[in-house]
Amino acid sequence: MSKYDVIIIGGGLGGLLCANILSREGMSVCLVEKNTKLGGCIQSFAKNKTLFNTGLNYTESLGEGEVLNQYFKYFGVMDKLKIKQLDKDAYNKVSFDNDPLEYPFAQGHENFVDQLVKYFPNSRENLQNYIQSLAKICNSFPLYTFDNSKINISNENLYGDSAYEYLKTIDKDYKLQQVLAGMNSLYGGVADKTPLYVHAIINYSFIKSTWRFVDGSSQLSGKLSDEIKSNGGEVHLSTKVTSIGGSDKKAQFIELENGEKLYADKIISSMHPSTTLKIVAPEIQKKHYASRIHSLENTIGMFTVYLVMKKDSFPYLNYNIHHYNSDNAWTSNYNEKTWPEHYYMYTPATSKSDKFTDGVIAMSYMNYNEVKQWENTFVENRGEDYLSFKQHKAEQLIKSIEKKFPDIRKHIECYYTSTPLTYRDYTGTPEGTSYGILKNYNDPLSTIITPRSRIKNLYFTGQNLNMHGILGVTISSVLTCSEFLGLDYLVNKIKKK
Questions:
Q1: 467-493 burial by CB neighbour count: b if 16+ within 10 A, else e?
Q2: pTM of the predicted model, to two decimals?
Q3: Distance between CA 290 and CA 274 in Å, rounded?
Q4: Rounded to an integer, what distance in angstroms lies between the CA atom of residue 390 and that of residue 402?
Q5: For each of the chain's 497 residues, which pLDDT tens digit applies?
Q6: Distances (CA, A) of 267 to 8, 230, 250, 333
Q7: Which of 206, 210, 70 is nearest to 144 (CA)?
């Protein structure tokens, strides 16, 4: 009988980080992943010899002395990653139809203000106040500042304010409000639900510094896996978990698709909590708890087009484009008839060239109802109607991009697409949600998932806890592992790196 200190279900970033931490701290760890590749949302894949990222498009605060840099040093991977900093004066450009201007998001607090003041000359003081407010919110999270003197992840004061309403108070200029909301596609912002802390952590962390992985984001999963194995941990691919079982109301083992059982003192799931609870055996299930988790609303999914570009044809852009077809930057504006209301577009960084790109990725929100008729199918086997649907959507999205890049079609060699169903099949997320459980400032504590589940010995990690994104998942993983190691001990180890 195989027995471990900890079994971790899922080889996405949350699972990999937990396995890294716990194996580093001397525990016997077994990580199981159903797919043939690790990484989940941080996977990369190649089409026509062109490398594309699945979900980790750019990342934040990797500069020396910054928060994610400190975490990555502890994980043992910071000096092994190939990364490239985006343009300091404009790592993002936010734009709108019927407005020829592109509004820059710059790196560095003062630079961020200086660049936007060129377009909003009467708003310098308001923008400075905006930065100070974001800093205050972020610094209220001990795992953002490594101040573990006090921590309360159920502190409602941090979660009960509206991002949308807050931006209305920053400045009376409606366009500036929408520009500051321009990175909504990084968290699926909804005007009447998204808490201010979600907006603050994303925007503030990228303003500190912004980076791309060179030659694909999957390098991160590879380096983390190497560290886990060097620490004595086990990593098993193509290993699907069919149930979580036990007795005496405790999770004690996982059962694999081949019937094998693996036992552990503790089990961590990096899958979506709803997906996890669906495979918990009835004898240890907590029905009321499961019902609550299943009832939580998820963020919207994405439609993505992956453009393979002709050689030395389309320029590499060292910034990201967030474009809106109206003057509304919130997902509550989603409308199938006028889709796409927005797109986020970028060129992946490769070591081949700094001048030209061989690929472009563009994505836009997609409601799951649009693909629901194919929900009982699996990737690569959905039929001609689905392929026609995707082609139609891709042409709509490319047509929208042509408004900004009129000659882009002549540079395209071919393209590939994905929908929320693709995302669902590869990551196991309900309805292909992009960012997991939708946080709601109206009832904040109901959408905050704690690492310790109501089922003894079963824990959660990943983007569905407090925060999402690479930094959010990192912090969530540390929170999960602190249940085993103690928060003071773990934070002190991280700070010493």
A1: bbbbbbbbbbbbbbbbbbbebeebbee
A2: 0.95
A3: 7
A4: 18
A5: 679 999 999 999 999 999 999 999 999 999 999 999 998 888 888 999 999 998 878 999 999 999 999 999 999 999 999 999 999 999 999 999 999 999 999 999 999 999 999 999 999 999 999 999 999 999 988 899 887 555 554 455 578 899 999 999 999 999 999 999 999 989 989 999 999 999 999 999 999 999 999 999 999 999 999 999 999 999 999 999 999 999 988 999 999 999 999 999 999 999 999 999 999 999 999 999 999 999 999 999 999 999 999 999 999 999 999 999 989 998 766 677 889 999 999 999 999 999 999 999 999 999 999 999 999 998 888 999 999 999 999 999 999 999 999 999 999 999 999 999 999 988 888 999 999 999 999 988 888 899 999 999 999 999 988 788 899 999 999 999 999 999 999 999 999 87
A6: 6, 21, 10, 40
A7: 70
- Contact indicator for 432, 418 with CB cutoff of 8 Å: no
Measured in residues, the chain has a length of 497
CA atoms of 127 and 208, how far apart (whole Å): 15
Task: Provide Rg for the chain, Cα atoms.
Answer: 22
Number of neighbouring beta carbons within 10 Å of residue 372: 12
- Residue linked to tokens 């929320």: 420
CA angle, 207 as apex, 206 and 208 as ends, to 5°?
85
Alpha-carbon distance values, 303 to 67, 222, 255, 283, 402 (Å): 31, 26, 34, 39, 17
- Take residue 8 and report the two structure tokens written for it: 């971790």
- Indicate the pairing of strand 359-366 with strand 301-309: antiparallel
Distance CA 415, CA 307 (A): 4
Tell me how far apart the alpha carbons of residues 381 and 143 are, in angstroms, rounded to a whole number. 43
At which residue do the structure tokens 């450009």 appear?
93
Integer Cα distance of 148 and 386 in angstroms: 50
424-450 per-residue burial string, b: 16 or more CB within 10 A, e: under 16: bbbbbbbbbbbbbbbbbbeebeebbbb
CA distance 476 to 286: 23
Residue 249 identity (one-letter amino acid): K
Beta-carbon contacts of 317 under 8 Å, excluding residues fewer than 6 positions away, are 346, 347, 357
Q: Please state, in angstroms and rounded to a whole number, the distance separating the CA atoms of residues 96 and 385.
A: 33
From its phi and psi, is residue 344 left (phi > 0), alpha (psi between -120 and 50) or beta?
beta
* Residue 12 amino acid letter: G
